[in-house]
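Re: weekly structure request thread

Next one in the queue (262 aa):
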Amino acid sequence: MGGSESTESTVQAKPPSQEFDKEWRDTPWEKKELLEENLRELKLGDSNVKYIRILLAGEVGAGKSSFINSINSVFQGRITTEALADSGFGRSFTKTYRTYYIRNGQSVLPFVFNDIMGLESEESQGVHPEDIAKSLEGLLKEGHNFNPAVSDKNVDYRSETRPEDLTYCLVYVIAADKVSMMNEEVFKKIRYIRENASSLEIPQAIIMTKVDEACPLVRDNLRNIYTSKKIKEKVIIVPLCSLWCQSSGFCLQFCLRTRVSS
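Done, posted below.
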C-alpha cells in the first residue's frame, strides 16, 4: 500500500557445525610426557623375552612405515625416516620383512615394530595373508621377501622360534581418508589374519592414520580430532563399525586415531 512494494526477506540457513560442543572421547593430552617417560622406563617381566614385537598390517598406502617413523621421531626428538615410505605408485613400497628398533640413548627400547608389505584386493598382489599368519608365530626370518608367499621349504622359513621372535601385538593401520573405500576382498584377508591372531591370543588394535587429510579441522589443530564430526563418522558410520566389525569382528573401543608424518 501507499505505492510501496513489500519485499520478502531471504534468510540463509546457517551451515551445520562440523564440531561437537565437547569431545566425544576423553583424551588426557596433558599426560603425553608421562606416557613417553613410562615407555622409556619399561621393563619386561620375563627374562626370556628381549623385545615385545608389534606387527603392523594394513592396505598399501595406509601409513604403516610413516607410523613407525612418527613413533621413532618422538623418542629421538627429531624427524626420522628410517622406515622408507612411498605410496605414489599404488603398490607396496615395503617388500621385505624387517624389524625396526627404537633407540633410547645408547640402548634400544624393549619393544620393536615389524613392517610388512601392504594388503591388496587382488589375490596375486600385496602381502599374502599366510605370510602374516606365519609372522605372528615368529616363523619369518628377517629380510624375507614377501613375493612369493613363504612355505616350510623356503629358506626364509624358521623351523624353531625364540620367545622374542613371536608377535605380541597385532596392529591394523587404516587410512582415515580411504577407509570408506576399502575393498571387500581386503576385509576377507583381514578376517583371516584376525582369526589366526585370535587363535594365538594375540592382542589386537586399530590405528586410524591420516586423520588430518580426512578433516580440515584436524589439519588445523590435531586436538580437534575428538570434536570433529567427520572423524567420528569415519569411526562409526563407515566400515570400522559396520562392515569392519561384521566382517572382521572388531569393535569401536579398539580403534585409535593419529596423524602420521610422511
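Strands lie at 52-58, 98-104, 107-115, 169-175, 204-209, 255-257. Residues 42 and 48 are 16 Å apart (CA to CA).
Next request, please.
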